[in-house]
Give the backbone structure.
Amino acid sequence: MLVVLVVLLVVLLVIFLVLVVLLVVLLVVLLAVLLVLLLVLVLLVVLVLVLVLLVVLVLVLVLFYKI
């Protein structure tokens, strides 16, 4: 009986450890995905700002040359 109990405890511990490791891996993956999404958002914002600046510069140049 003792051997069976010990084996059951070990199996439960192994399952628990595997679940914890899986949870940690999932959290790390989620954090990585969030970081990538943040980087993409920042890049998109920078691109939009650059495009807006270019449009403003072109408009200013056109107006300047018309005057």
